[in-house]
Amino acid sequence: MNAIREIAAEAAAAQPFVEMRGVSKSFGRTKILSNVNLSVRKGEVIALIGPSGAGKSTLLRCINQLVKVDAGRIWVDGELMGYRQIGNRLHPRKISEVLKQRAEVGMVFQGFNLFPHMTVIENVSDAPQRVKGLSRAEALAISERLLDQVGLLARAKSYPAALSGGQQQRVAIARALAMNPKVMLFDEPTSALDPELVGDVLEAMRGLAAQGMTMLVVSHEMRFVREVADRVVFMADAGVVEEGPPDILLTNPSHERTRKFLERLL
Amino acid sequence: MSTISTSGGDENIVFVHRKSYGQWIVGALVLIIVASLVHSLWTNPRLATDVIWRYLFSEPVLRGVWMTLKLTVVIFAIGLCLGLVLALMGRSANPVLRGTAWAYTWIFRAVPPLVQLILWAFLAALYPKLEFGIPFTDIVFFSADTNDVMQPYVAAIIGFSLIEAAYQGEVIRAGLLSVPSSQNEAAQALGYSGWQTFTRIILPQAMPAIVPPSANNIIILLKGTSLVSVIGAVELLTTVQQIYAETYQVIPLLFVASIWYLVLTSLLMLGQRYLERRYSRGRLTVGGELA
Question: What ipTM was predicted for this assembly?
Fold first, then answer.
C-alpha cells in the first residue's frame, strides 16, 4: 500500500506543476521574453538569476497574468492560464476564471506593495474575504496563524508605515499565503532591504520551502540560492541560457555568459 | 514626547532660551493693526449694525440661505458623480471613452458659466420640444415642451452640474494618478476584481489628494451660485440685492450676505477636516509619527 502511494507520489512529482512553453513577450519593440520554456515540479524551489533586463520579473508576471503573453502557453497544476484551448485555438477565459487563477498564484514584490491605508491584519485578511468569500472570522484566524508564522502577530494592528522594510516584506508574504496559493512567486524580495533586515525575510522563505511550497524566486542572495534552491535558472537576453542544480551551475557553469555574470556578482 | 534627562553630576545644568524680542514686537504690531481695523468698522455708524441684525435672520434672507445651500449641495453631488464617471472614462482602455471624457472636459471648462446658464434657460430657442426615444427612429417614450421643463432652478442645476463635473473629473483624475501603479498590481495579484481594486485599494488612497481641491471647488461653487440671478432664480445674494434695491441699505445687507457665506464656508471646512482626518489612516506625518 505504502509502495503504491510512493509510486503515485513520484509520478505526480515527475509531472510539471508549472510549465511554460514557447512564451514570448515584447514591450513595444523591445523583446523581453523570447520563446522561453520552463518546467517546475511540485514542491520545487527555482531560483531565477541573471542581469537586469533579462526578463526575470516579466517571466514571473506572465505566470500570474499581470503581463499578457504575446505567444506561448503557461500551465499551473495542469490548468492553462488565461485561456481555454479548443482544437488549436486559444479562447480567453471569463474574467472570473482569470481572477480565480490569479488568486491561486501568490506574488511577493520587490517594493512590498502593502496597502498603506489598512492595518497589517487588514492587509492579510481582506483578500480572503473579498476574493475567496471567507467569513471574517475564518479570514482572521488564517491571517493570525500566518502572521504568527512570519513572527509579526504582535504588529497585527500596526499600519505598514510603522514597520521596517523587512517586517513589511514578511507581512507581504503572509498576505500572499493567506490566499492558500498553489505556487509562490518572489520578485527580488530582499533587494530593497537594508542588509541587516534581509535575514528575517529569507528565514520566512526558507520555512516556506521546507513546508513543500512550489516557489519561483528572482534573487541574487547567492547564499540563499545555494542553500534553498533545487534548481538555478540563468536568464540573459530575453531567454534561458542554462539551468541546473546550484552547486553545479554556480561553481562550474557551462556557458561563458553565465561565468561572466557570476564573476561580476561574487 | 521626548524628555531630556540629565544624569550624574549634571543636575545643575539649565537650558537658557533665546530671547526673541523681534517676534514679540512684530506680533504686537500686527495685532494692533487688525484690532484697529475691526474696531473702526464695528463702531462706524454708517455700517448700521442694527440693520444687519434686523435682516440677518429675516425670513427672505433665510430662504435665500436655504436656496444657496440646496443649489450648492445638489449641484456638487451631481458634479461629483459625473466627475467620477469622467475620471474612470479617462482611465479606460477604450480610446472612444477616453476621447469623449477629454472632449467633455475641454468644452465644459472653456465655455463661461454665464453662457451655459443662459443657454440652458433658453434651450427652447434651440430645441422647442424635448423628446426621449430611440435615436434615428420614430419611437418616442416621452415628450414635453422645453420651456415647461427648463424652470430657472432646473436650468441652473443642469448648467452648473455639467461645469462642476468637468472640474471634479480632473480633481479625481489627479487623485487617482497620485496612487502608485504598484498598488494596482498588488491588488490584481491577489485576485481582486477591477471594481474591488478601485473601491477598496485605489480610491481610499486617492482621497487625501482629492479632498482639499474638492473643498476648494465646492466653496467656489457656493458663491458662484449667485450667478443664477441672471436667469431669474433667487438665492442668498439675489435676495439681499432685492432688499437693498428697495431700502438703499446696500452696505449692511452685503454684510448680511457675507456673514452667511462665512458661516456656510466654515461648515464646509469642518466637513473637509473630518474627511481629511478620516482618510489620513496609516499615513506618516511630517514628524514621522503615525496619523
Answer: 0.91
